[in-house]
Write a structure and sequence with these properties.
about 5% helix; 2 domains; about 325 residues; 28 strands
Length: about 325
Amino acid sequence: MLPLCPGLRPGEAQARADANDAMSANTILGTTATLDITEGGCTNGNVASTGEVVLGVVTDNAGVFTFDCNQLPCPAATIVFAIDMADNFSDSSAFRIESFTAPAGSTLNSISMDLTTIRVDSDPGAGVTNVADDGMFDFRTAVAGDVNRGLASTVQTGASTGGAAISTTTAGGGLQPTLQVNFTGFDPGDTLFFGVDTDEVGPIAGPTDMGGEFGTGFTVGQQSTILGLQVQVDVNGITFTDRLVFQNNNRSTQTLTFALDNGTGFGIRTRKSIQVNSICNNFLGLNLGPYNVTAKSFAMFGCPVATGGPPRLIRVDNFSCTCP
């Protein structure tokens, strides 16, 4: 049996390299052996079902493990999120979920936004530098000289909604740096955009062209955005967090891609055949050996990647692989 490599990660090339590292950590009759990690044209990059490294999906059914090299492990969800100031909401920021791609049956449960320390102001002339400033979602009813837009009044749906809707939010009244929006029926293929007033994120000159203010790296005059708005999404109870990236003065975006837990694991089978000599070369005049000896082992790494470890050796009861 091969020892597990602690760095095993579910990716084709890396998994093959990790398997070879595990093999190379051992010797067979004092000789170091290596695996053929060549990638082929079959599913998961397998060369053939008889390859020395075969990747696939492992399903655990009450301790009965099934390995299938024809399935793709660790299905992923991808969400493209953007904030832009175009012609949609002239008095509040347009928050967009431009695309949601995931396996059938997946649901986007919520998305939260965090404006904490979105920028650092620097005014050398006034002797003030590196002053943290939090952006705020503004849910006040009416403030002189300010346009306040509650989230519910500005919800709009995209081209392929499929019934997606905002159900509730954690937003209270007043100013606050974070906002969570919960969804009902937000399925793969749905899109959505909505507006909510934000304060303390526009450039010094005024509230126009402030879409880029939400992304890391934006600078204007004596003001710099150093972090960017943090977005956290919940799909099927799995959360993933990232920060928006500045694209231009009107737009900041982020593509969030992460593995989902579908009850399976990332599987890898290693098999090596070597030739060994017999203890005695002949018996009663008959030549003995050399003999070909084959050993194999299976390892499993759970999905999603962030919570699926550590990898472990398993005994596979059913092996399925139609790759020729």
